[in-house]
Amino acid sequence: MTDDTLARYRESIDNIDAALVFMLAERFKITQAVGAYKATEGLPPADPGREERQIERLRRLAADANLDPEFSEKFLRFIIDEVIRHHEKLQGKD
Questions:
Q1: Whole-model pTM?
Q2: Nearest to 51 by CA among 26, 88, 32, 76
Q3: Phi and psi at residue 80, to the nearest 5°
Q4: Could you say which DSSP state residue 8 is in?
Q5: Contact 70, 62 (CB under 8 A)
Q6: pLDDT tens digits, residue range 16-50?
Q7: Candidate CATH numbers 3.40.50.12780, 1.10.760.10, 1.10.1040.10, 1.20.59.10; the one for domain 3-90
Q8: Which residues form a coiled coil (predicted)?
Q9: Could you tell me if 52 and 73 are in contact, meaning their C-beta atoms sit under 8 angstroms apart?
Q10: What is the DSSP letter of 45?
């Protein structure tokens, strides 16, 4: 592999990382709005049933994409836990 080849691979990885950051930022903007709505409506910060459905859905998507479902579940669990923490903060439960 030449240095040019490695540089192209790394540039692609950098572009993907940037896209992931912007996608996560957008996702958190939306989940912040959900958290504000839940706080206003007196809804609990967490929804275990939805979380379970989302994890199962992501595991299926991961399998279809040839991505390790265990990794995808850990990744989503990390995001869900952070969202719940934000929702609890909005409700003064931090």
A1: 0.80
A2: 76
A3: -60, -45
A4: H
A5: no
A6: 999 999 999 999 999 999 999 999 999 999 999 99
A7: 1.20.59.10
A8: none
A9: no
A10: S
